[in-house]
Amino acid sequence: MQPATYVAYYRVSTQKQGQSGLGLEAQRNACQVYQPIAEFIEVESGKNDEREELNKAIAFAKANKATLIVAKLDRLSRRASFIMNQMDEGLKFRCADMPDADEFQLHLFAILAQKERKMISERTKAALQAAKARGVRLGGVQAEKANAMRSYEESILPVLKRLIDSGVEGPAALARKLNEDGHRTPNGALFVSTQVSRLLKKELEK
Fold first, then answer.
1. Pick from 1, 52, 119, 151: CA 20 to 30 A from residue 159's CA?
2. What's the rounded Cα separation, in Å, for the pair 193 and 185?
3. Whole-angstrom Cα Rg for the chain
4. Taken in order 137, 140, 146, 152, is the CA torsion positive or negative?
5. Which of 60, 49, 51, 11 is nearest to 31 (CA)?
6. Which ranges of the chain does DSSP label H, i.e. alpha helix?
7. In this model, does residue 110 exceed pLDDT 70?
8. 121 an active-site residue?
9. Hey, what long-range contacts does 201-204 have (CB within 8 A, 24 or more apart)?
10. How far apart, in whole angstroms, are the C-alpha atoms of residue 196 and residue 206?
11. Which entry of 13, 20, 193, 197 is annotated as an active-site residue?
């Protein structure tokens, strides 16, 4: 039997990430073992399924009877319906972080991931409505923002300490490891070395 051929698709969410390579390196490293014959890179939100480079990658994979490889399922799409439609249309794809998952399992993971995102969104809206009903002013309150930032820093600093204790050195390496482990900034973005440096500086100044 002829070995499978792979085409890699990498996606980052912002132009800044695309220019810096942030996130791309981790995705490339994850897919490297598959030795892709071509790579397609997109700078676009996962909420948008009308992506030029993704369409090119899918067309190239089908034309070459290849399997599309992505680092994680959400790099392909955040919508289960889109993933299912691509399967129905004959696209073969695999996720580097779930190398043994078959099409049925990927289908199931896509549905579960979409449901989880919906539940998080609903819980957030409910919490905001409850706070508003209690008379809490939502938005534009500097004290609330400062408290939220302090709470976030208190949660992420122990993670940084564990990484440092495990041998990860330097802000760039720490930022990369945080991103690989799924941690995000308060705005939901990927970490960069300057943010890690600021966090470490704050801790040293305490």
1. 119
2. 12
3. 20
4. positive
5. 11
6. 15-20, 24-31, 52-63, 73-76, 80-88, 103-133, 142-165, 171-180, 193-205
7. yes
8. no
9. 202/153, 203/157
10. 16
11. 13
Q: How far is CA 54 from CA 43, 45, 123, 188, in A?
A: 10, 12, 32, 23
Structure-block tokens of residue 189: 């973005």
d(CA 165, CA 77): 35
Max CA distance (Å), the chain: 67
Share of the chain above pLDDT 70, in %: 83
CATH superfamily membership of 6-109: Resolvase, N-terminal catalytic domain (3.40.50.1390)
pLDDT tens column, 130-162? 777 776 666 555 556 666 777 777 788 888 888
Q: Give the position of tokens 């979409």.
A: 114
Q: Phi and psi at residue 48, in whole multiples of 5°? A: -95, 115
Judge contact between 38 and 7, C-beta under 8 A. yes
**In the block, which residue shows the tokens 């390579």?**
21
**What's the rounded Cα separation, in Å, for the pair 163 and 53?**
35
Q: Beta-carbon neighbour count of residue 93 at 10 Å?
A: 22
